[in-house]
Amino acid sequence: MTTIDTLLEAARRHCAEDILPNVTAWNEAGTWPRAVSDKAGDLGLTGIYAPQEFGGQGMSLGDGIRVYEELGRGDGAYAFALSMHNICTFAGCGYGTDAFKAAWAHDLTSGRKLANFALTEPQSGSDPMTMYSRATVNGDGTWTISGSKAWVSLAGEADIYFTVVKTSDEPGHKDMAMIAIPADAEGLSFGPRYDTPSYNFLPFSEMYMNNVTVSEDNIILPPGQGLQGSLMAIDIARVSIASGCCGLMQAALDIALAYTGNRKMFGGTALDQDGMQWMLGEVATELEASRLLYRAAANALGTDQGPVMAAHAKRFVPDAALKAANTCTQALGGMGLLRSYDLDRLSRLAQMLRIVDGTTEISRVVIGRSLKKRAKGLEPLPIPKGFGEAG
Ligand SMILES: Cc1cc2nc3c(=O)[nH]c(=O)nc-3n(C[C@H](O)[C@H](O)[C@H](O)COP(=O)(O)OP(=O)(O)OC[C@H]3O[C@@H](n4cnc5c(N)ncnc54)[C@H](O)[C@@H]3O)c2cc1C
After folding, report:
1. CB of 200 closer than 6 angstroms to any ligand 1 atom
2. pTM for the full model?
3. What percentage of the chain reaches a pLDDT higher than 90?
4. Which residue of 126, 195, 315, 319 sits with most ligand 1 atoms within 8 Å of its CB, as the best mutation to test the pocket?
């Protein structure tokens, strides 16, 4: 039986042997490294939370999410793509129909087939309620789907897309559902690839559904559960991103330490200067705080506190990662700007991770709502004597 320690060790090795030595070449080639994600499957990194009966590792979210910290030391976009695959696999093995599980579960947990999530549309990112993709439920048990999705990761590379759709013209989310659309479904196509220079190996594009007909076997969340289920998936994604960001911070800090510990200046090294120690010390403190926060948030998933804890982690950690990557660039002086030191790539990845799966601002909205709820339960404070008496 795989333990979390063996899985973390496998992720560490995958990062050192497969990601770090090759990520520059992946970006230059602009293609998803399928042989490497196949290897991630062999290492147990593509079925992290899925039950063992389907070939998964059966990890809890609290433990399994730590894998992305290891992968994020190598590349945040690769860690992100595997996290979305794992979330879809978890959903498919947990909520899918028996027919879906029989057809897909083992292929997904083994990484032979890759999955991704399609919620965002060209006109709606932060506010998914304004969704236009529609499924018509046919009398013969099939669904016919039309519409467009945007920012689909692993576009054209994944084998199946867990797609959120409306099933009526009623406004609101009560008719929303999630259905898994196989990549070879007739009528499914992809737009031109978005040009994202810093994580060019991960394909993104729009996804077009033109009267795509899918069997009801592929319903993951029936009408009425689509939005709520998607929000649960997004909470897991937010904490996974925070975990990946901790790996990114550790990578940036190690580059800065390795450089400043050897760069001679003022009769010592750059790292001998108090100001440099303070600068990098702040990165180290924020890294420790970020680790504690994302691990607490991972343990809260599935409880009432899950959404707000995920929002705290997504609000705080990617911001801290961007600041860390920029501070570490500064610590190298001009050398920090060179491609070979990799800090520019880490800064661009941190900025990307502030946006995907709910922006920093949307996390603030979730936190704000929870503060308002708490305020409602508090006794109003008495106004001190002498205030407002004239009126
Ligand atoms: C690299 C990458 C990969 C992605 N992969 C996927 C994927 O695989 N599947 C998928 O479905 N989606 C994916 N997305 C979409 C992603 O989740 C959205 O980009 C994100 O939710 C933000 O939506 P938007 O880009 O439309 O920004 P908008 O919603 O247009 O927001 C624009 C700005 O307005 C701000 N804003 C919005 N509402 C408020 C508010 N109430 N108060 C203050 N400010 C506000 C936002 O924070 C942002 O700064 C991906 C995005 C990126 C960048």
Report:
1. no
2. 0.97
3. 94
4. 126
- Check if 358 has its Cβ closer than 6 Å to any atom of ligand 1: yes
Q: What confidence tens digit (pLDDT) does each residue in 344-365 have? A: 999 999 999 999 999 999 999 9
The CATH code of domain 116-223 reads 2.40.110.10
Distance 175 CA to ligand 1 centre (A): 22
Q: 228-376: which CATH number, 3.40.50.150, 3.30.70.100, 1.20.920.10, 1.20.140.10? A: 1.20.140.10
pLDDT tens per residue across span 39-71: 999 999 999 999 999 999 999 999 999 999 999
How crowded is the C-beta side of 102, counted as CA atoms within 13 Å? 4
For a ligand 1 pocket test, name from 359, 364, 365, 372 the mutation site with the most ligand atoms within 8 angstroms of its C-beta. 359
Contact 91, 162 (CB under 8 A): yes
> How far is ligand 1, taken at its centre, from the CA of residue 232, in Å?
17
Query: What are 50's two structure tokens?
Result: 């899925």
> Cα separation of 53 and 98, whole Å?
13
Nearest CA to ligand 1 atom 45: 361
CATH code of the domain occupying 4-113 = 1.10.540.10
Q: Taking the domains of the chain in order of start, what are their residue ranges?
A: 4-113, 116-223, 228-376
Listed residue (30, 178, 55) closest to 117, CA to CA:
178
